[in-house]
Write a structure and sequence with these properties.
Blueprint (H helix, E strand, L loop, with lengths): L1 H4 L6 E4 L2 E4 L2 E2 H8 L3 E5 H14 L5 E6 L6 H9 L3 E4 L2 H9 L7 E3 L6 H10 L3 E4 L2 H14 L3 E8 L21 E2 L3 H10 L3 E7 L10 H19 L6 E3 L16 H12 L5 E4 L3 H4 L3 E11 L6 E4 L8 H5 L5 E3 L8 E6 L8 E8 L6 E4 L20 E6 L2 E6 L4 H5 L7
Parallel strand pairs: 4-20, 5-6, 5-13, 6-7, 7-8, 8-9, 9-10, 9-11, 11-12, 12-13, 15-17
Antiparallel strand pairs: 1-2, 2-3, 4-14, 14-15, 14-19, 16-19, 17-18, 20-21
Length: 422
């Protein structure tokens, strides 16, 4: 168990024979708030942000946390208090960021399908920048800004056609992906943007994928973007900032996740001679290893081919294993001293794809608590009510205190949104 938790220390560690989150025993959290529940470490969140801030000391830079990774108000507030900005992809995320105390001037708005209503809301709010992802979006934004008598600050999300070497579902910088404008088209679209009366060209944006474990594609993408910046300057378009996106990976199992230093320093060296503000959009890297999903073993169902451990968490609570065949370490909260068996960790959902882990060597019994680690990113944010399962509670641990930051839903609340026909 200790080996599995090495990359979570000191925020998640075994003390006195059981898993603790900071100074709070995980059994106390489960007893107080029930299972399944998500639990986050405030100190882990702040330490992850500090990794970036420390590397950026003395640099004109802004870290904009990617809200989609984990949008809980308390999580956003931890980052807002530390001066972070936010990368949003919807009007709802903009409302969340504002409710959590975000500075509108530190918000960038990404996403391929911004509605006119979302654009108007963001313009009235006074956000830092729109990351525009297509020529039609640019025209719509110009029209919306004109109707409000405003100018929209924009950067184009340029697709550098760089292979991020990650899962195909989370690769975003290749020609066949839906994101951004083609590298070859960017110059012409920038020239169109510069000619529009209600658009103010301020920057350039690039994001090549998620869960990247090799820093070299970032440098390759930056080289292509810098060439484009020089072409723009030659055509009379001067930029004020460069947004390098996010995507830096974390360790889920035994991956060699790069340090923030090894990722950022090569990029900072390339940018040193240029007077460009640097914007970064880390998401998973800030929250992934700062959270876990606590779940209880309901039944053990040994079989001839496989042994199933049926737990009270399911694919609706944590979709990543079913969606990507993603690995999450699964550890007993109170380890047993008996010999382990191999278990399929599955939930109560009526789908064969409802699993949280395959072939895990665990010594467990009904009623035991398990912690599904590295669940802080794309866990609660992607959860659903499939099978009419209320979404789970979320808890934030701060030292020796555990705070409920989202209460568990009730079935009555789910039904209240629906109506019978007359």
């Amino acid at each position: 168990m200790t080996a599995n938790l090495a990359h979570h220390a000191p925020f998640f560690a075994v003390k006195n024979g059981q898993l603790h989150v900071e100074s709070v025993p995980a059994t106390d959290i489960a007893e107080r708030f029930g299972t399944p529940c998500y639990v986050y470490s405030r100190a882990a969140l702040e330490a992850s942000l500090d990794e970036f801030l420390n590397e950026l000391t003395g640099v004109d830079a802004l870290v904009c946390y990617a809200v989609k990774a984990n949008s809980n108000l308390a999580v956003l507030n931890v980052f807002a208090r530390r001066g972070a900005g936010f990368d949003i992809v919807s009007g709802g995320e903009l409302q969340r960021a504002l409710a959590a105390g975000a500075d509108p001037k530190k918000i960038v708005f990404s996403g391929v399908g911004k509605s006119a209503e979302e654009m108007a809301f963001a313009l009235k709010t006074g956000i830092l920048c729109f990351n525009v992802e297509s020529a039609p979006e640019l025209e719509r934004l110009n029209d919306v800004a004109g109707s409000l008598g405003l100018k929209a600050p924009i950067s184009l999300r340029v697709n550098p056609n760089v292979d991020a070497k990650t899962h195909p579902y989370i690769s975003t910088g290749l020609k066949e992906n839906k994101f951004g404008v083609a590298y070859e088209d960017a110059l012409a679209i920038y020239q169109r943007a510069a000619a529009l009366p209600h658009i103010e060209v301020t920057g350039i944006d690039c994001h090549i994928g998620s869960q990247l474990l090799d820093p070299s594609p970032f440098a390759e993408a930056l080289d292509k973007v810098l060439l484009l910046i020089d072409q723009l300057a030659a055509s009379g378009i001067t930029l004020h900032h460069i947004d390098l996106g996010g995507g830096l990976g974390i360790r889920y199992q035994d991956e060699g996740a790069p340090t923030v230093n090894s990722y950022l320093q090569p990029l900072l060296k390339k940018l040193k001679a240029r007077s460009l503000k640097i914007v970064l959009e880390p998401g998973r890297r800030l929250v992934g290893n700062a959270g876990a999903l606590l779940t209880k073993v309901e039944f053990l169902k040994p079989g001839e081919v496989k042994n199933f451990a049926i737990v009270d968490a399911a694919m609706n609570d944590l979709a990543r294993p079913a969606l990507y065949d993603a690995w999450h370490d699964i550890v007993p909260v109170v380890p047993r001293n008996t010999a382990p068996s191999s278990w399929e960790i599955v939930g109560p959902i009526c789908e064969s794809g409802d699993f949280l882990g395959h072939s895990r060597p665990l010594a467990i019994a009904p009623g035991d608590l398990l912690a599904i680690m590295s669940a802080g990113a794309y866990g609660m944010a992607m959860s659903s009510n499939y099978n009419t399962r209320p979404r789970v509670a979320e808890v934030m641990v701060d030292g020796d205190q555990a705070h409920l930051i989202r209460r568990r839903e009730t079935v009555e609340e789910l039904l209240a949104l629906e109506s019978l026909l007359p």
